[in-house]
Amino acid sequence: MAEIQPSTKKKAQPKAKSVGEAKYVLPFVWMLLMTAASFVLVSTGFVPLRWLIPIIILLAIAQVMVQLFTFMHLEDKGTRMFIIFTSGGAFVAVTCILAMLYLA
Fold this sequence. Notes:
- It is a multi-pass membrane protein.
- The protein is mainly α.
- Helices cover about 70% and strands about 0% of the residues.
């Protein structure tokens, strides 16, 4: 008769975070910090209004860039036209906003 061997199955172990999941954590933390910095700057009045608006705009632009490159995968192939059209649209929008500010 054939001998019955005990099972040598390993117990299920929790999966370690994959590199794909972990690469989103740091950019997410940066975005939270930029948002918190904006709120703190506005609520404390630490920075004069003259400097506050440009600082918040720079933080917003940085946050948009982090979101686009992290969560929209703009570093992948095939996104060149998207980047060109988005950059062109942003340039036109900024030009129109500046023109309205200076003409008002």
